[in-house]
Design a protein that fits this description.
mainly alpha, two-stranded antiparallel sheet, 18 helices, 1% strand, globular
Length: 480
C-alpha cells in the first residue's frame, strides 16, 4: 500500500502541476496584456471586490468539501447531502452581499462598486456545485480531469477578458474573465465526471460531515480573512492605487505559491488521509519536503534577483513601484509553503479541532503585525507579512511534528541544506547581475544558471531527469 500511495501522489502531483501550469501560464500572459491596457484603479476595484468574494467562497467551498475527502466512509449520497448544505449557504451569502453592496461602495468611496460586486457575487452560488465536483475528483484522485476543465475554462475566459479590455470595458474585462472561468470549469466538469446531485438528503450524515467540516471552514475563513486583511487596510487607509501596486507586486509570488500549493495540497491531503500509520506518514512527508525544497528554493532565489527586470519588462515602467512588494512576496513563499504542507498533514489525521486552534493562535498575532505595518507604510505591511510567514512555518511544523513524530532536529536537517543553497545562489547571482545592464541578458543568464544547477543536483540519464537527489538517503531512524 505504501508504494501505491507514493505512485498516487506522484501521478496526482503530475496532473495537478500540468493543470496549474496551464492555468497560471495563460492567466499570467493575459494579466500582462491587461496590465498594459487597463489602469491601476481598475485593478484596485477588482481587488476590493475579490476580498468579499474570496471570503464568501471559503464559507461555501471549504470545510464541507474537505469533510467528504477525509471521511473514509463517504458514499455517493453524501455528496448530494453536502451539496444542498453548500447551496443553502451560498444563496444566503449572495443575498447578504447583494444588500450590503451599497454600504461597501460608500465605505471605500469607489463609484460603480455596487453593480460590480452584485454581478461578481454570482460566483458564490456557482461555487456550491463546483465545490462538490472538485471534492468528488480529489476523493477518487482523478486529477487528470482538472486538467481538461482548466484548459478549456482558462482559454475561453482569457479571450473574453482581452476582447472586453480592447473594446474599452475597463474593470468589466477583469470581472467577466474571472466569472466566465468559474462557469466554464463547472460546465466542463459536468460532462467529464459521473456525479450529479440526487434528490436525497441524510440529516444523520450531514451532522457527521458538518461536525468535521465546520472546524475546517472556520479555520480557513479566519486564515483567508486575515490573509486578505491587507486589502481592507490598504484600500481603506491608503487608496485603491496603492492597493493595485501592492497586489500587482504580489501577483507573481502569489501565482507561484498558488501554483505549488494548488498542485500538492489536494494531492497530499487525499493521499495522506489514506495512510493511518504515523511512521509511514513521517517517511513520506520527509521525502516530499526534501524534494520540493530542493526544486523550489533555488528557483525562488533566481526570481528574487531579477524582480526589477521582470516587473518593468512585463508590465512597463508605470508598475515600477511593485518591485519591492514582489521581493518580500518571494521571501515569504518558502515559509508559507512549508506551513501549508504541514497543515495538510494535520488535516489528514482527522484533527480538524487542532487546525482551528492553530488559526486562533496565529491570526491575532498577524493582526498586530499588520496594524504595526499600516501605521508606517504599505512597504511595512509587506515586511510584516513576510515576518508572519516565518511564524506560520514554525507553528505548523511544530504541531505536525507532534502528531506524527517528526522531530525538530529532523525538520532542520531536511530544510537546512536546500535553504543554504538558495541563499548562496541569490548572493552570487546578485553580484553578477550588477554587471549586466540589458534586461533580457540578465534573465537569460539567471535562467541558464538555474538549469545548470538542476542538472548538476538531480542528474540526467537516458530517461531524463533523475528525481532522487544524488547521494541522499531517505531512511528514517525508525524502520517502516
Amino acid at each position: 500500500m505504501h508504494d501505491d500511495i507514493k505512485k498516487s501522489i506522484i501521478k496526482g502531483i503530475g496532473w495537478k502541476f500540468a493543470e496549474r501550469i496551464i492555468a497560471q501560464g495563460v492567466s499570467f500572459i493575459v494579466s500582462i496584456i491587461l496590465a498594459r491596457i487597463l489602469m491601476p484603479d481598475d485593478y484596485g476595484m477588482v481587488a476590493i471586490v475579490f476580498l468579499f468574494i474570496t471570503l464568501a467562497d471559503v464559507l461555501v467551498s471549504s470545510g464541507l468539501g474537505t469533510a467528504l475527502i477525509q471521511d473514509k466512509n463517504a458514499v455517493e449520497d453524501d455528496f448530494s447531502t453536502i451539496f444542498y448544505c453548500s447551496l443553502f449557504i451560498s444563496i444566503c451569502l449572495y443575498m447578504i452581499m447583494f444588500v450590503s453592496a451599497p454600504l461597501i461602495e460608500h465605505f471605500y468611496k469607489i463609484q460603480g462598486l455596487t453593480i460590480v460586486l452584485r454581478v461578481f457575487s454570482l460566483r458564490i452560488i456557482l461555487g456550491a456545485y463546483n465545490t462538490i465536483q472538485h471534492a468528488y475528483i480529489v476523493k477518487k484522485m482523478e486529477f487528470q480531469k482538472f486538467f481538461w476543465a482548466t484548459l478549456i475554462g482558462t482559454m475561453i475566459s482569457a479571450f473574453l477578458g482581452i476582447y472586453l479590455a480592447v473594446k474599452g470595458y475597463g474593470v468589466w474585462a477583469l470581472v467577466m474573465q474571472y466569472l466566465s472561468n468559474s462557469v466554464m470549469d463547472s460546465v466542463v466538469l459536468s460532462f467529464i465526471i459521473k456525479w450529479y446531485p440526487k434528490r436525497v438528503f441524510s440529516i444523520k450524515r450531514a451532522k457527521v460531515l458538518v461536525g468535521y467540516g465546520w472546524k475546517i471552514m472556520c479555520a480557513d475563513f479566519i486564515g483567508t480573512f486575515f490573509n486578505q486583511i491587507q486589502t481592507v487596510f490598504i484600500g481603506g487607509y491608503y487608496n485603491a492605487t496603492q492597493l493595485a501596486f501592492y497586489n500587482k507586486g504580489n501577483q507573481i509570488p502569489n501565482a507561484m505559491f498558488n501554483n505549488i500549493t494548488g498542485t500538492i495540497s489536494s494531492v497530499l491531503f487525499s493521499a495522506f488521509s489514506k495512510v493511518e500509520d504515523k511512521l509511514k506518514k513521517k517517511k513520506l512527508i520527509r521525502q516530499v519536503i526534501k524534494k520540493l525544497s530542493f526544486v523550489i528554493f533555488p528557483g525562488l532565489a533566481v526570481m528574487y534577483t531579477i524582480s526589477d527586470t521582470i516587473i518593468i519588462g512585463l508590465f512597463t515602467a508605470k508598475w515600477a513601484r511593485c518591485v519591492e512588494f514582489m521581493k518580500y512576496g518571494i521571501l515569504s513563499i518558502p515559509f508559507f509553503l512549508i506551513g501549508e504542507i504541514s497543515i495538510q498533514i494535520v488535516k489528514s489525521t482527522g484533527r480538524s479541532d487542532i487546525v482551528l486552534k492553530i488559526e486562533l493562535v496565529k491570526k491575532p498575532l498577524y493582526l498586530i503585525l499588520i496594524l504595526i505595518g499600516m501605521k508606517k507604510s504599505v512597504i511595512a505591511i509587506a515586511q510584516m507579512t513576510c515576518l508572519y510567514s516565518v511564524v506560520v512555518a514554525i507553528i505548523n511544523l511544530y504541531v505536525m511534528g507532534k502528531l506524527i513524530g517528526y522531530k525538530g532536529r529532523e525538520i532542520l536537517s531536511d530544510l537546512l541544506w536546500p535553504s543554504f543553497t538558495a541563499i548562496v545562489m541569490a548572493v552570487i547571482l546578485t553580484s553578477f547581475n550588477s554587471f549586466l545592464k540589458m534586461g533580457y541578458i540578465k534573465v537569460l543568464f539567471n535562467a541558464v544558471c538555474l538549469v545548470v544547477f538542476y542538472m548538476f543536483k538531480f542528474g540526467v540519464n537516458n530517461k531524463g531527469i533523475v528525481f532522487k537527489l544524488k547521494g541522499e538517503k531517505y531512511e528514517d531512524s525508525e524502520k517502516v
